[in-house]
Automatic annotation (TrEMBL):
Domain of life according to the entry: Bacteria
Keyword GTP-binding among UniProt keywords: no
Record's protein name: HAD superfamily, subfamily IIIB (Acid phosphatase)
PANTHER family cross-referenced by the UniProt entry: ACID PHOSPHATASE-LIKE PROTEIN
Organism of provenance: Maridesulfovibrio ferrireducens
Cleaved signal peptide residues: 1-22
Protein backbone atom coordinates (compact mmCIF):
# COMPACT_ATOMS: atom_id res chain seq x y z
CA UNK A 1 0.00 0.00 0.00
CA UNK A 2 1.15 3.55 -0.73
CA UNK A 3 1.71 5.70 2.33
CA UNK A 4 2.04 9.44 2.75
CA UNK A 5 5.69 9.33 3.70
CA UNK A 6 6.50 8.35 0.11
CA UNK A 7 6.29 12.05 -0.75
CA UNK A 8 8.85 12.82 1.94
CA UNK A 9 11.18 10.24 0.45
CA UNK A 10 10.77 11.84 -2.96
CA UNK A 11 11.58 15.27 -1.58
CA UNK A 12 14.76 13.98 0.06
CA UNK A 13 15.67 12.26 -3.19
CA UNK A 14 15.00 15.40 -5.17
CA UNK A 15 17.33 17.34 -2.93
CA UNK A 16 20.10 14.94 -3.91
CA UNK A 17 20.90 13.59 -0.45
CA UNK A 18 19.49 11.98 2.65
CA UNK A 19 21.01 13.17 5.90
CA UNK A 20 23.06 10.51 7.63
CA UNK A 21 22.58 12.32 10.94
CA UNK A 22 18.80 12.04 10.87
CA UNK A 23 17.12 10.37 13.81
CA UNK A 24 16.13 6.76 13.30
CA UNK A 25 12.46 6.36 12.46
CA UNK A 26 10.71 4.36 15.19
CA UNK A 27 8.25 2.83 12.75
CA UNK A 28 11.01 1.59 10.48
CA UNK A 29 8.86 -1.35 9.41
CA UNK A 30 6.77 1.18 7.43
CA UNK A 31 9.69 2.48 5.41
CA UNK A 32 10.25 1.40 1.83
CA UNK A 33 13.02 2.33 -0.55
CA UNK A 34 12.62 5.09 -3.11
CA UNK A 35 13.00 2.66 -6.05
CA UNK A 36 10.34 0.42 -4.50
CA UNK A 37 8.02 3.40 -4.04
CA UNK A 38 8.43 4.29 -7.70
CA UNK A 39 7.76 0.72 -8.76
CA UNK A 40 4.58 0.67 -6.69
CA UNK A 41 3.39 3.86 -8.35
CA UNK A 42 4.09 2.38 -11.79
CA UNK A 43 2.33 -0.87 -10.91
CA UNK A 44 -0.72 0.91 -9.49
CA UNK A 45 -1.15 3.13 -12.53
CA UNK A 46 -0.16 0.79 -15.32
CA UNK A 47 -1.94 -2.31 -14.00
CA UNK A 48 -5.22 -0.56 -14.70
CA UNK A 49 -6.13 -0.24 -11.03
CA UNK A 50 -5.79 3.54 -11.17
CA UNK A 51 -8.31 3.69 -14.03
CA UNK A 52 -10.69 1.40 -12.16
CA UNK A 53 -10.45 3.58 -9.07
CA UNK A 54 -11.12 6.70 -11.15
CA UNK A 55 -14.15 5.03 -12.71
CA UNK A 56 -15.47 4.29 -9.23
CA UNK A 57 -15.14 7.99 -8.40
CA UNK A 58 -17.01 8.99 -11.55
CA UNK A 59 -19.83 6.62 -10.60
CA UNK A 60 -19.98 8.41 -7.25
CA UNK A 61 -20.31 11.74 -9.07
CA UNK A 62 -23.20 10.31 -11.11
CA UNK A 63 -24.90 9.01 -7.95
CA UNK A 64 -24.63 12.37 -6.22
CA UNK A 65 -26.05 14.22 -9.23
CA UNK A 66 -28.92 11.76 -9.69
CA UNK A 67 -29.87 12.16 -6.04
CA UNK A 68 -29.72 15.95 -6.29
CA UNK A 69 -32.03 15.88 -9.29
CA UNK A 70 -34.40 13.44 -7.58
CA UNK A 71 -34.44 15.63 -4.46
CA UNK A 72 -35.32 18.68 -6.51
CA UNK A 73 -32.16 20.64 -5.67
CA UNK A 74 -32.31 24.00 -7.44
CA UNK A 75 -29.42 25.03 -9.68
CA UNK A 76 -27.15 22.06 -8.93
CA UNK A 77 -23.58 22.19 -10.21
CA UNK A 78 -20.30 20.28 -9.98
CA UNK A 79 -16.77 21.65 -9.53
CA UNK A 80 -13.84 19.73 -11.00
CA UNK A 81 -10.09 20.36 -10.73
CA UNK A 82 -7.91 20.35 -13.84
CA UNK A 83 -4.71 18.41 -13.16
CA UNK A 84 -5.11 14.74 -12.30
CA UNK A 85 -8.89 15.04 -12.49
CA UNK A 86 -9.57 16.18 -16.05
CA UNK A 87 -6.07 15.76 -17.49
CA UNK A 88 -3.17 13.67 -16.26
CA UNK A 89 0.32 14.65 -15.13
CA UNK A 90 1.35 11.00 -14.90
CA UNK A 91 3.40 10.71 -18.11
CA UNK A 92 5.55 13.76 -17.44
CA UNK A 93 6.03 12.86 -13.77
CA UNK A 94 7.02 9.35 -14.79
CA UNK A 95 9.73 10.74 -17.07
CA UNK A 96 11.07 12.72 -14.11
CA UNK A 97 11.06 9.67 -11.83
CA UNK A 98 8.21 11.17 -9.77
CA UNK A 99 10.69 13.64 -8.29
CA UNK A 100 9.78 17.08 -6.97
CA UNK A 101 12.97 18.97 -7.71
CA UNK A 102 13.19 22.17 -9.75
CA UNK A 103 13.90 20.29 -12.98
CA UNK A 104 10.81 18.09 -12.56
CA UNK A 105 8.60 21.07 -11.74
CA UNK A 106 9.87 22.97 -14.78
CA UNK A 107 9.16 19.97 -17.02
CA UNK A 108 5.59 19.81 -15.71
CA UNK A 109 5.17 23.57 -16.07
CA UNK A 110 6.42 23.33 -19.66
CA UNK A 111 3.83 20.64 -20.44
CA UNK A 112 1.12 22.87 -18.99
CA UNK A 113 2.30 25.83 -21.08
CA UNK A 114 2.27 23.66 -24.20
CA UNK A 115 -1.17 22.33 -23.29
CA UNK A 116 -0.22 18.70 -23.84
CA UNK A 117 -1.40 16.94 -20.67
CA UNK A 118 -3.50 13.93 -21.82
CA UNK A 119 -7.14 13.34 -20.97
CA UNK A 120 -8.29 11.11 -18.12
CA UNK A 121 -10.86 9.16 -20.10
CA UNK A 122 -13.38 8.31 -17.36
CA UNK A 123 -13.47 12.00 -16.48
CA UNK A 124 -14.40 13.20 -19.93
CA UNK A 125 -17.22 10.65 -19.99
CA UNK A 126 -18.70 11.83 -16.70
CA UNK A 127 -18.15 15.44 -17.76
CA UNK A 128 -20.23 14.88 -20.90
CA UNK A 129 -22.84 12.98 -18.87
CA UNK A 130 -23.22 15.91 -16.48
CA UNK A 131 -23.70 18.38 -19.30
CA UNK A 132 -26.25 16.09 -20.96
CA UNK A 133 -28.26 16.22 -17.72
CA UNK A 134 -28.11 20.00 -17.70
CA UNK A 135 -25.67 20.12 -14.78
CA UNK A 136 -23.19 23.00 -15.08
CA UNK A 137 -19.54 22.11 -14.51
CA UNK A 138 -17.16 24.73 -13.13
CA UNK A 139 -13.45 24.06 -13.56
CA UNK A 140 -10.78 25.25 -11.15
CA UNK A 141 -6.99 25.08 -11.10
CA UNK A 142 -4.04 26.00 -8.91
CA UNK A 143 -2.36 27.39 -12.02
CA UNK A 144 -2.07 31.20 -12.36
CA UNK A 145 -4.29 33.35 -14.53
CA UNK A 146 -1.53 33.99 -17.08
CA UNK A 147 -1.80 30.34 -18.18
CA UNK A 148 -5.48 30.61 -19.10
CA UNK A 149 -4.91 30.26 -22.86
CA UNK A 150 -2.68 27.20 -22.42
CA UNK A 151 -5.18 25.52 -20.10
CA UNK A 152 -8.10 26.32 -22.39
CA UNK A 153 -6.23 24.80 -25.32
CA UNK A 154 -5.30 21.74 -23.26
CA UNK A 155 -8.89 21.16 -22.13
CA UNK A 156 -10.24 21.61 -25.65
CA UNK A 157 -7.60 19.29 -27.09
CA UNK A 158 -8.46 16.68 -24.45
CA UNK A 159 -12.13 16.75 -25.50
CA UNK A 160 -13.68 19.09 -22.95
CA UNK A 161 -16.10 21.82 -23.93
CA UNK A 162 -19.22 23.46 -22.58
CA UNK A 163 -18.07 24.17 -19.02
CA UNK A 164 -19.64 27.11 -17.23
CA UNK A 165 -16.50 28.73 -15.87
CA UNK A 166 -12.74 28.32 -15.50
CA UNK A 167 -11.20 29.75 -12.33
CA UNK A 168 -7.44 30.25 -12.14
CA UNK A 169 -5.24 31.48 -9.33
CA UNK A 170 -5.30 35.29 -8.95
CA UNK A 171 -2.23 37.26 -7.81
CA UNK A 172 -3.43 37.50 -4.19
CA UNK A 173 -3.31 33.70 -3.90
CA UNK A 174 0.10 33.15 -5.52
CA UNK A 175 1.88 32.54 -2.21
CA UNK A 176 -0.87 30.47 -0.62
CA UNK A 177 -3.57 28.81 -2.73
CA UNK A 178 -5.06 26.78 0.13
CA UNK A 179 -8.20 28.90 0.45
CA UNK A 180 -8.72 29.63 -3.23
CA UNK A 181 -11.01 26.71 -4.02
CA UNK A 182 -13.24 27.49 -1.05
CA UNK A 183 -13.37 31.16 -2.03
CA UNK A 184 -14.58 30.22 -5.53
CA UNK A 185 -17.22 27.87 -4.15
CA UNK A 186 -18.53 30.50 -1.75
CA UNK A 187 -18.73 33.00 -4.59
CA UNK A 188 -20.75 30.59 -6.72
CA UNK A 189 -23.01 29.81 -3.79
CA UNK A 190 -23.78 33.50 -3.34
CA UNK A 191 -25.12 33.59 -6.90
CA UNK A 192 -27.66 30.89 -6.03
CA UNK A 193 -25.75 27.89 -7.38
CA UNK A 194 -25.87 24.74 -5.25
CA UNK A 195 -22.63 22.81 -5.54
CA UNK A 196 -23.56 19.16 -5.13
CA UNK A 197 -20.04 17.76 -5.63
CA UNK A 198 -16.47 19.04 -5.58
CA UNK A 199 -13.94 16.78 -7.31
CA UNK A 200 -10.23 17.16 -6.60
CA UNK A 201 -6.92 15.31 -6.58
CA UNK A 202 -5.47 16.56 -3.27
CA UNK A 203 -7.23 17.12 0.07
CA UNK A 204 -7.05 20.93 -0.11
CA UNK A 205 -9.11 20.83 -3.31
CA UNK A 206 -12.13 19.52 -1.43
CA UNK A 207 -11.59 21.20 1.96
CA UNK A 208 -13.74 23.91 3.47
CA UNK A 209 -17.32 25.01 2.99
CA UNK A 210 -19.81 24.64 0.13
CA UNK A 211 -18.22 21.48 -1.27
CA UNK A 212 -21.40 19.47 -1.57
CA UNK A 213 -20.15 15.90 -1.58
CA UNK A 214 -16.32 16.00 -1.59
CA UNK A 215 -14.87 13.47 -4.00
CA UNK A 216 -11.13 12.86 -3.95
CA UNK A 217 -9.61 11.19 -7.01
CA UNK A 218 -6.88 8.59 -6.46
CA UNK A 219 -3.47 10.17 -6.60
CA UNK A 220 -0.52 7.85 -7.16
CA UNK A 221 1.88 10.10 -5.24
CA UNK A 222 -0.19 11.25 -2.27
CA UNK A 223 -2.48 8.21 -2.02
CA UNK A 224 -2.97 6.17 1.16
CA UNK A 225 -3.10 3.03 -0.97
Amino acid sequence: MFVRFILVLFLFSAAGCVSTSAKRVNNSHLMISIPDARLRILEYHESGQYDRDVEAKTRKIEEVVKKAIADGVKYPAVIMSVEDVLVSTYNIRKKQGFADNSCARKALDYSVILGILPVIKPSVKVFESLLSRGIPVFIISHRPENLRVSILENLAGAGYSGWSGLYLLPPNHQDDSSGFYEEVRKGLHRTGINIVATVGAIPSDIAGEQTGTPILYPNYIYSLR
